[in-house]
Write a structure and sequence with these properties.
288 residues; lipid metabolism; Enoyl-CoA hydratase
Length: 288
């Protein structure tokens, strides 16, 4: 058993399994539609932090158990906003609420900041916070029964954890606005047609097998090159072409690794799998 599996063995909302350099984060509350309860908001970011510091994980796959991927935020989390700690002077309550939302946002932003690719495999409903999560991963896959909904509008809430900020980079602007204004369901087939979903599979079993095979393929590549590719894509999304080209040149000047290039070429000629070193583990920040 991997040490991180032991560390998170008592999790109640999200399980962690690691095999062959692929980490599987799986939602494990199917009877509650895998809603994002207090346990989720504690366990999920903790797992991501641990994976970010891990040296021998090269891909993360997020999946679920039961009929639905997730029904989004657990209502008990919303109810907590009426707790005694929020019954304070208005401006201070507003400041507390703002910090609370920023903490939720930071949870999914970690998915973008991980050094490794994050793949998501979705079956059944993916609602509200589930769409926030999906918008932050690198690649999305779905079974034919999957559907998605920016449900916050039906709860009289402006979606605030990433959907409205990230989806316009993934889907046509007009469609994003329609979905956000109406909260209507859009199917896996529609999501694939507009580019949100990479591929649709006939069943969750077929989907999960295909996604794990894809994760294995990525894990065999140079982790340094994969990390650089993710970094460049994220930077290019948020900057001009010229700025992104200059950043790529600077990155390459420090990260180009001739030894790994030779290993890749030699392995190809010898018709074998290349052997690449893991990235170095992230170390805690130095403090005074």
């Amino acid at each position: 058993m991997h040490p991180l599996e032991q560390q998170f063995a008592s999790n109640k909302a999200v399980s962690l399994r690691i095999s062959n350099a692929v980490a599987q984060l799986q939602f494990i509350r199917p009877d509650a539609l895998n809603t994002m309860n207090v346990d989720f908001w504690r366990e999920f970011p903790a797992c991501l932090q641990a994976l970010s510091a891990c040296a021998d994980v090269r891909v993360v796959v997020i999946s679920s158990t039961g009929k639905h991927f997730t029904a989004g935020m657990d209502l008990a989390v919303f109810a907590s906003l009426n707790g005694p700690e929020f019954q304070i002077e208005a401006s201070r309550r507003a400041e507390m609420l703002r910090r609370w939302v920023l903490e939720l946002q930071a949870c999914f932003t970690q998915l973008e900041q991980l050094r490794v690719p994050v793949l998501a495999a979705v079956q059944g409903g993916c609602i509200g916070g589930g769409v926030d999560l999906l918008a932050a991963v690198d690649c999305r896959y779905a079974s034919a029964d999957a559907y998605f909904s920016i449900k916050e509008i039906d709860l009289a809430i402006t979606a605030d954890v990433g959907t409205l900020q990230r989806l316009p980079h993934l889907m046509p602007q007009g469609l994003v606005r329609e979905l956000a204004f109406t909260g209507r369901k859009f199917t896996a087939q529609e999501a694939k047609a507009c580019g949100f979903i990479n591929a649709v599979y006939s069943s969750p079993v077929e989907m999960n097998e295909a996604v794990m095979a894809l994760a294995k393929t990525i894990a065999e590549k140079s982790p340094l090159a994969v990390h650089g590719t993710k970094e460049m894509l994220n930077y290019s999304r948020d900057h001009s072409v010229q700025d992104s080209l200059r950043y790529a040149a600077t990155w390459q000047s420090g990260m180009f690794h001739a030894h790994e290039v030779m290993e890749a070429m030699t392995a190809s000629m010898e018709k074998r799998a290349p052997n690449f070193d893991d990235l170095q583990p992230n170390t805690p920040k130095l403090t005074r």
